[in-house]
Amino acid sequence: MEDEENIEEELFLVESQLHDIQGQIKTLLDRQEELYERQLQLKALLEVSKMSRNKSNYGSSVTLEDWSGSFPWDSQADDTRFNVFGITSYRSNQREIINTVMSGKDVLVIMAAGGGKSLCYQLPAVLCNGIALVVSPLLSLIQDQVMGLAALGIPAYMLTSTTNKEVEKFIYRALDKGEGELKILYVTPEKISKSKRFMSKLEKCHHAGRLSLVAVDEAHCCSQWGHDFRPDYKNLGILKIQFPSVPMIALTATATSKVQMDLIEMLHIPKCVKFVSTVNRPNLFYKVYEKSPVGKVVIDEIANFISESYPNNESGIVYCFSRRECEQVAKELCDRGISAEHYHADMDIIAREKIHMRWSQGKSQVIVGTVAFGMGINKPDVRFVIHHSLSKSMETYYQESGRAGRDGLSSECVLYYRPGDVPRQSSMVFYENCGLQNLYDIVRYCQSKRSCRRGAFFQHFGEALQDCNGMCDNCASSIELKEIDATSYSNKDVDLKREEIEQLIVQLILDHVLKEEFQHTAYSTNAYVTLGPLWKPALQGNRPVKLEIAVESSQDRGGGGRLSKGAKRSWMSDLEAKLDELRRELSSSSSNRGISIFPHAVLSSEQISLLSCQKPTTEAELEKVIGKVKTEKYGGRIIELMRSYVTDARAGNGADASKRNKKDKDVVCGE
Ligand SMILES: Nc1ncnc2c1ncn2[C@@H]1O[C@H](COP(=O)(O)OP(=O)(O)OP(=O)(O)O)[C@@H](O)[C@H]1O
Ligand SMILES: [Mg+2]
């Protein structure tokens, strides 16, 4: 009997040592992986540095310049910015980038989603003589841009598989002979790599000195290290080889240093001037909501949130984990009166396009999508992005939530988190390189009730911390928290609520006291929890495990009522709602070369806010708000609406005034 106990004891000891060793092996393997990755990075860096040294030896070294200084084109650029693009002032780095391109340099732009990258090549394209070539990966992105430019009266065209023969002829004549009006030409990368005819016309255009610049949008698609590699982007290096004197501008929203080096090498722009902007999106309010284990309750909450916070059909996206979940959530939101449609990769491309189009035109309010609803979403006025389930990494969450508020106005990013969702994701990502590590980073983000959400992004992208300004739930929250040392809880029977126990288990996994293991069955992969590498010190009390628990855990669960202090409501005033209606009407009645114009191309949400503040009633006043081109096109109808509104208000119809008092405005009017 005693013998048996001894054997059992030793067996336990051996098993625990084996566990320890397995943990150490895993740590070493992870480290090996990191070192391999760093080795590759350093080799690439060396290569790029050698290349630029060799080039500068030939006498054309880069001098440091002040790109924000004065340049000969300043006044013309300001005039075009305001009167053609209707943009009041530049955003961070735009002016410098435009000056660099105008100076004939190659440029690499890394700027967050919605930062305003398009203007950085569109404005120089308008200012320069000749034709600018823009390479963009998706038809939908191209259509959206061409339509937006056409609405501004800029002669932009696209040459893709959908271009009809007549337009193609027009484009070829413009390239070949300089006939007709063509300022910006959009193509997909396949045109460069597959159409000899197109390339020969482009060469003619260049030889005649009519190719003003080349822009490569979504440039991360060049790199296989990026998240959206497109094989045809690999061949874009030919552009710099064929047109070495034409400035190239490569633009992307996210690029790690490895991707950046890859881009520079592939596009042959070793001497490019690089502009890296912050990843911060100050207008986005980040929050994590506790997700109920009951599916219907979650949908009720989402539906309440949308209908209370966004009663004027403001656009949003709900991201779901699976295709089935996507369809179900869309249906249940519809049952609750929200106009929602689902979108996933199982649907055919035409159905997907239709849904995307209806949403872009404001005919449906919400798209419930899987990750397939990704690049190509160019809608600037998405007011909320809700994650019904956890994303698989901080990077994916940053990108998906970042589709909100590209117009710079306040928008919300809500993630519904419940520890029970972790194994669903972990059993999908554990075989990916660093998959679990990436997942645990976002889980850490969700578990924390104290740390700034925005701070987690700065940390993830290796950027210095910036002030959150109360624009996340944790920074804005006044809920009292207690931090308990969960070490004692992890080895005793204690009185924790079910959700808190789940939260504790996940915390123990994050702290390596427990770990997930995976087993395949014929139909699925199951995640199990076993002892992790640090179970012993935790059990011995040498390693504290901290768990943050809300003292007052009965949070207000009522939809819009859950907005923490600091979050901005986006209710529209009466006048804004009228202007919104007008832009929809004007967009559906105007079309350009058969492509209908989106409402935001008629008036941006920022312009609507400014108009409702300043209430211009003459053409001259209106021009000061939205610029010349839009005043000429839509001025009549806008002034008509403004005048009747102002007359009504003077006659004592104070409905709007009383409503506006309730509002928390996004845009502050002033000089
Ligand atoms: N200086 C500015 N002032 C106000 N609005 C601007 C300014 N620059 C750009 N915008 C607007 O911001 C929105 C987003 O711009 P844009 O499409 O160029 O973003 P992006 O950086 O290309 O983002 P993404 O990576 O998502 O493609 C557009 O509606 C654009 O008109
Ligand atoms: Mg863009």
Automatic annotation (TrEMBL):
It is an enzyme of class 5 (isomerase). Its main location: nucleus. InterPro entries: DEAD/DEAH_box_helicase_dom, DNA_helicase_ATP-dep_RecQ, Helicase_ATP-bd, Helicase_C-like, HRDC_dom, HRDC_dom_sf, P-loop_NTPase, RecQ_Zn-bd. GO terms for biological process: double-strand break repair via homologous recombination. Its EC number is 5.6.2.4. NCBIfam families: recQ_fam. GO terms for cellular component: chromosome; cytoplasm; mediator complex. Belongs to the helicase family. RecQ subfamily. Gene3D superfamilies: HRDC domain, P-loop containing nucleotide triphosphate hydrolases, Winged helix-like DNA-binding domain superfamily/Winged helix DNA-binding domain. Residues 652-671 are annotated as: Disordered. Its cofactor is Mg(2+); Mn(2+). Residues 298-447 form the Helicase C-terminal domain. Keywords: ATP-binding, DNA-binding, Helicase, Hydrolase, Isomerase, Metal-binding, Nucleotide-binding, Nucleus. It catalyses: ATP + H2O = ADP + phosphate + H(+); Couples ATP hydrolysis with the unwinding of duplex DNA by translocating in the 3'-5' direction. Residues 98-273 form the Helicase ATP-binding domain. This is ATP-dependent DNA helicase. Residues 657-671 have a biased composition (Basic and acidic residues). It is found in: Nucleus. Residues 569-652 form the HRDC domain. One of its GO terms (molecular function) is ATP binding. PANTHER family: ATP-DEPENDENT DNA HELICASE Q1, DNA HELICASE RECQ FAMILY MEMBER.
